[in-house]
Specification:
Blueprint: H1 14-22, H2 30-44, H3 51-68, H4 70-91
Helix pairs in contact: 1-3, 2-3
């Protein structure tokens, strides 16, 4: 039995995240933002506590997975359509 599960790049390591972002699997500007956020997190972390680094990794892993989900674009368009409809209604159109 086939499923329509979208392809997901491997995201187990920082190298995997970098490769996925380099291949365009994230949102626009995520590749550069990831490096900046990761550097800031590393600078803010101690050797014994990498919680901030972990948060950056989890965030970008989620962003990549979200962007690869085919339902994401549909949900965004539904939100845009709803916003436009509410604006028209507020203007009395």
């Amino acid at each position: 039995m086939e499923t329509n599960t979208p392809w997901q790049p491997p995201l187990r390591t920082i190298s995997d995240l970098r490769a996925a972002l380099l291949a365009g699997h994230g949102f626009p500007d995520d590749r550069d933002a990831f490096e900046t956020d990761l550097q800031r997190a590393l600078e803010a972390s101690s050797k014994a506590d990498l919680t901030v680094v972990d948060a950056v990794i989890v965030d970008y892993r989620g962003r990549i997975r979200l962007r690869q989900n085919p339902d994401f674009d549909i949900a965004v368009q539904e939100g845009i359509d709803l916003t436009m409809r509410l604006k028209r209604e507020a203007r009395g159109e």
